[in-house]
Amino acid sequence: MARLSSVKPSRQRKAMYQAPQHVRRKMVSAHLSPELRARYFVRSLPLRKGDTVRIMRGAYAGIEGKVRSVDLKRFRVTVEGVTREKADGTTVFIPIHPSNLMITKLDLSDKWRASRLKALTETVLEAERKEMAEEEAEKEVEKEVGEKTGEAGEGEGGKPSGG
Predict the structure, then answer these.
(1) In 10 A of CB 133, how many CB atoms?
(2) In 3-state terms, what secondary structure has residue 71?
(3) What CATH architecture applies to the domain 7-107?
(4) CB 3.0–4.6 Å: which of 57, 64, 149, 158 could bond 100 by disulfide?
């Protein structure tokens, strides 16, 4: 998402409502469930039609369903099963803000989205492996230094020197 440079709420709103489509898509994001977060090492992703979400806040909290549509103009998402009956008897879907949703199952039918998630996961895993290797190297160096100081620290009679 483009960094909004102003701290004024009015400027923030103006930037949001005048944002181009490719920026709006990223704004319509939701957090991943703890299971998905542990699997993909990502906190949130843009919502797509077909994702399964759970409503976390509001009158419909606890309801889980598939994303039916994503409205980038109004920054709202409609979820299957979240409807209201109008006065004339017709049923309409209730638009929900993405901040009130949590993704529980991703729609990975899009090859590009699946490959991006895989690439992100591999990057994080590679960084973790590198970090672990560096920690092991530091421990080995500390161990070697400890052994050398232990040998040099002995004074006469096999007793450690010092205070």
Answers:
(1) 10
(2) strand
(3) Roll (2.30)
(4) 57
